[in-house]
Each structure stands twice: as C-alpha cells, then as structure tokens.
Amino acid sequence: MKFQTNEILNGKYTTKKTTKNVFLVPFTLLLIMFPLILMRNTNESSPNISSVKNMNNKTETKGCDIFDGNWIPYSEGPYYNNETCKWMIDEQNCMKFGRSDEEYLHWRWKPNECELPLFNATQFLNIVRGKKMAFVGDSVGRNQLQSLLCLLSQVADPEDVSHKYTSNVIYFRRYFYADYNFTLGNLWSPYFVKSVDADPNGHSYNSIMKLYVDEVDEAWSSQVEDFDIVIISAGHWFFRPLLFYEKGQLVGCNKCGMKNVTDLAHYFGYKMALRTAFRTLNNLKNFKGVTFVRTFSPSHFENGDWNKGGNCVRKKPFSKEEMKLDGYFLQTYLTQVNEFKVAQEIASNKGLKFLMLNTTEIMLLRPDGHPNNYGHPKDTNRTFYNDCVHWCLPGPVDTWNEFFLYMLNIESNSSYGSKLESVL
Ligand SMILES: *[C@@H]1O[C@H](CO)[C@@H](O)[C@H](O)[C@H]1NC(C)=O
Ligand SMILES: *[C@@H]1O[C@H](CO)[C@@H](O)[C@H](O)[C@H]1NC(C)=O
Ligand SMILES: *[C@@H]1O[C@H](CO)[C@@H](O)[C@H](O)[C@H]1NC(C)=O
Ligand SMILES: *[C@@H]1O[C@H](CO)[C@@H](O)[C@H](O)[C@H]1NC(C)=O
Ligand SMILES: *[C@@H]1O[C@H](CO)[C@@H](O)[C@H](O)[C@H]1NC(C)=O
Ligand SMILES: *[C@@H]1O[C@H](CO)[C@@H](O)[C@H](O)[C@H]1NC(C)=O
Ligand SMILES: *[C@@H]1O[C@H](CO)[C@@H](O)[C@H](O)[C@H]1NC(C)=O
Ligand SMILES: *[C@@H]1O[C@H](CO)[C@@H](O)[C@H](O)[C@H]1NC(C)=O
Ligand SMILES: *[C@@H]1O[C@H](CO)[C@@H](O)[C@H](O)[C@H]1NC(C)=O
C-alpha cells in the first residue's frame, strides 16, 4: 500500500434550486489523515441500553420500505458515547475535540410505513453467530464498521485479531467475538480493482492513478470467500484523477487533463469497477455469502472547496424541500444502482443474494452529522482539512446499522428461497 497514513477522498456536489437556496460547494479532493492509533483503551464500557427502548415488531416491519421516510426529532440519547465505546477513533470522536452542539444526536429515521426497530446488539450477535462478515471498500465503509463495534459493545467487545491475518493491520482489520464465534473485519480496497500510481513523482493528494477497471483487486478477492456476509462500501476515491485501462489498454480517464486521452468522467470508472467487483462475487467458486451494497454516501462541503476552507457547520438536518438528490451525486448513485440491479439478477440465477443498503438520499439530508473540524485537536501546527465526508460517532451513521440489522432479520427469517437462511 503506497500511502499508509493518508487517505484521499473526493467528490462533488450539486443541488437543485431550493427554497432556502442551500448551495453545497463542489469539491475535488479531500485528504483525511488515517489514524495511527486506532483505538483507545478504557475500562469504562458499561452499556447504556436503558436509554433505548426496543421497538422491534416483526409483524409490523415485514415488507415495509424502510428507506422511504423522514428524519424526526428523537428525545432519547444515542446508543453509546465516547466513554462507553472504546472502539471509536479520534477522527470520528467529535465530542472529544469539542463538538458541543448535541441536536445532531437527537434525530431518528422514521420510515413512512413502519417503525425502524432500534438496534438490538444481542439480536444482532445471535443472527451472526458462527459467521464471518467483512466490509469491502474505503474508509466510509470502515466508519460503518466502527459504528457497529460501538453498537455491539453494549453487549460484547471483541478481541482484535488483525495481526493473525495480515501485516497491514491499519488497512485490514479483524475482530473476533469469542462468545458468538463471530468474525467482523474489513478488506481495504477503495477502488475494488487493481490500481497503480501513474505519477512519476509518486503519490500525492492529486496525483494520477492507473485503474485496471476489469481486473479485480486481489487484496479483497483472494480473501472474500471466507466470508458469509459482505458489505460493498466505497465511492469517493473515484473522483480522483484516474487513467482507465481495459484489457491492459488505456481507454480513457477522469480529470487527467491529457489532450490525447478521452475524459470519460468518474462514472465510467465507478461503473466498471463495480461491475468487476460484482462479477467477481458472482463467479467466485466458493463464495456463498450474501452481499450488501451500501449506496453512495454524500459529502456536505459548503462555503468553499474542501481545501479552501469548505466546511459543514450545520446543526440540523435538511428538509426534503431544501435538499434534493441531483446532478453529480444523483448520477453517481444511479450508476451504482444500475450495476447493482444487473448483478442482483445474475446472482439470483446462481442462488446468490445481493441486497441494497439504500442510504444515499437519507444521508444527503444530514449535513449536521460530519466531524467538520472536530476530528482532531485544535492547537496544532499541522494543516487539517474539514471532514465533511465521514460521520461522527455516535451519529447518523448508526442508522446504517439499524437498516442492516433490519434486513438481516428479514433475510434470516424469510421462509423460502432465502440465501441468508442457508448461510445464517
Ligand atoms: C444512560 O441512560 C440514562 C437513562 O436514560 C440517562 O439518564 C443517562 O444520561 C445515560 N447515560 C449516558 C452516558 O448516555
Ligand atoms: C434484544 O433481543 C434479545 C434477543 O432477541 C431479546 O431477548 C431482548 O429482549 C431484546 N432487547 C430489547 C431491549 O428489546
Ligand atoms: C405490532 O404491529 C402490529 C401492526 O401494526 C400491531 O397490531 C401490534 O400491536 C404490534 N405489536 C407490538 C407488540 O407492538
Ligand atoms: C432508495 O430510497 C429512496 C428514498 O430514500 C428512494 O427514492 C429510491 O427510489 C430508493 N432506491 C431504490 C433503488 O430502491
Ligand atoms: C469524550 O467527550 C468528552 C466531551 O463530551 C471529552 O471531554 C472527553 O475527553 C472524551 N473522552 C474520550 C475518552 O474520548
Ligand atoms: C466457528 O465458526 C466457524 C465458521 O465461521 C466454524 O467453522 C467453526 O466450526 C465454529 N466454531 C465453533 C466452536 O463453533
Ligand atoms: C498522450 O500524450 C502524452 C504526452 O502529452 C504521452 O506521454 C502519452 O503517451 C500519450 N498517450 C497516448 C495514449 O497516446
Ligand atoms: C507551532 O510552531 C511554532 C513555530 O514553529 C512553535 O513555536 C510552536 O511551539 C508550535 N506549536 C505546536 C503546538 O507545536
Ligand atoms: C424468526 O421468526 C420466529 C417466529 O416467527 C421468531 O421466533 C424468531 O425470533 C425470528 N428470528 C429472528 C432472527 O428474528
């Protein structure tokens, strides 16, 4: 891995004309320092599940479209905090670095047709007992993994067994829940396909990368057959300057600025990389798992580019009237959905299962959930950029795991033809 401590993310925003004229600034690159110290040690991990009521109701939830709904005010506190969860990393520990407004912690997703049950760690661990689950992708996927570790810490803390599987324990992590014989990990692969630095000056924020869009990145494909549940979760890296290769031939680029190379935009790279990733999962001989595809997670830079003072200082969600999925991000999302649908159909013919964690529009409404400048200490000589890409913990990203558990529940319990039924 060329850059051990840096992560370059990028994306772009456009919005429809809105009643309040919300304008989110396009951005092209974002550097987020990757944590060297990935966890703190604290003995205070007493659960506080007393504050969350279980709203699980099987008969009510069956068949409901949980992604169609609204963020509504919620007076109860979050599931955990930075004292009860020891798995939080500094970059997402917004409270630690002085974020004092708390309204962003008091919203819950309310589907129109039903209740979204609260996350029940015991129930989750019972469903995944004896299973292995991995997030494949970038640091936003890892953000969800970190949320899951915190949600589960109400009931159990795992052993970090990363070193048994890899020497690259920063990018490839594994946690083992002994009481449940459950393995949770991540396979780092921000492009899903083979990538190589193309810049003779080496890797930097805006250096160009070669992407072999039809060749899967073996860093994950060689390991994924071990896993019963896979969450495909990446996107922002595709906004970088990229050269696209197919069958080893240069076919185009994204923002390469070369006159003799066609700019196919990031959609092409994203489309082809997803196609390759999904094809790989559908064709791996021993892969019998269930694949979840988490849709693109919007970023929320306002008042400037990511590297020109752009920030995300809002303290409450957007209303649906204020913010519509549009332009660049809509196209990115649709690119993903199209590839998902093709893969899902191929999978179903092979007895495999693809499910969608349809989070894009929902998270578009949460400009208030990002670390902004609360992911690092204030008094330092280092240059930090505001993080309007990842999500504070606790925070709205916890909702992704509520969706995830909801879907696991339905799949593990559906009476016929369910792939999960056999693997879970
Ligand atoms: C735990 O829950 C109780 C009861 O709802 C609440 O008063 C308390 O503030 C919570 N503590 C934390 C750390 O969230
Ligand atoms: C969580 O799920 C477990 C097992 O399904 C159940 O026994 C428990 O009552 C649930 N917890 C809450 C708070 O509902
Ligand atoms: C579950 O939902 C159904 C249908 O909305 C309702 O009739 C029932 O009372 C609910 N059960 C519980 C335990 O809340
Ligand atoms: C995803 O959810 C949104 C609502 O949040 C909905 O408009 C959209 O149609 C859903 N997409 C798919 C592919 O189901
Ligand atoms: C947790 O957040 C509080 C502020 O709410 C901060 O004072 C404290 O240092 C943080 N603790 C840890 C362990 O991160
Ligand atoms: C633990 O789970 C693995 C599969 O993930 C299985 O092969 C193994 O037999 C299980 N061990 C026990 C003690 O149940
Ligand atoms: C495109 O032009 C650059 C110089 O500007 C050259 O290095 C490169 O080989 C050319 N690529 C192709 C595909 O012709
Ligand atoms: C920042 O740099 C200045 C000048 O080099 C130095 O005096 C100061 O101690 C540094 N502050 C920190 C927190 O490192
Ligand atoms: C599946 O459904 C059965 C009965 O409908 C229930 O007892 C069981 O708890 C459910 N399993 C899960 C994992 O929700």
From TrEMBL:
<dbReference type="GO" id="GO:0005794">
    <property type="term" value="C:Golgi apparatus"/>
</dbReference>
<dbReference type="InterPro" id="IPR025846">
    <property type="entry name" value="TBL_N"/>
</dbReference>
<feature type="transmembrane region" description="Helical">
    <location>
        <begin position="21"/>
        <end position="39"/>
    </location>
</feature>
<keyword id="KW-0472">Membrane</keyword>
<dbReference type="InterPro" id="IPR029962">
    <property type="entry name" value="TBL"/>
</dbReference>
<dbReference type="InterPro" id="IPR026057">
    <property type="entry name" value="TBL_C"/>
</dbReference>
<feature type="domain" description="Trichome birefringence-like C-terminal">
    <location>
        <begin position="116"/>
        <end position="406"/>
    </location>
</feature>
<dbReference type="Pfam" id="PF13839">
    <property type="entry name" value="PC-Esterase"/>
</dbReference>
<keyword id="KW-0812">Transmembrane</keyword>
<dbReference type="Pfam" id="PF14416">
    <property type="entry name" value="PMR5N"/>
</dbReference>
<protein>
    <submittedName>
        <fullName>Uncharacterized protein</fullName>
    </submittedName>
</protein>
<comment type="similarity">
    <text>Belongs to the PC-esterase family. TBL subfamily.</text>
</comment>
<feature type="domain" description="Trichome birefringence-like N-terminal">
    <location>
        <begin position="63"/>
        <end position="115"/>
    </location>
</feature>
<dbReference type="GO" id="GO:0016413">
    <property type="term" value="F:O-acetyltransferase activity"/>
</dbReference>
<dbReference type="GO" id="GO:0016020">
    <property type="term" value="C:membrane"/>
</dbReference>
<keyword id="KW-1133">Transmembrane helix</keyword>
<keyword id="KW-0735">Signal-anchor</keyword>
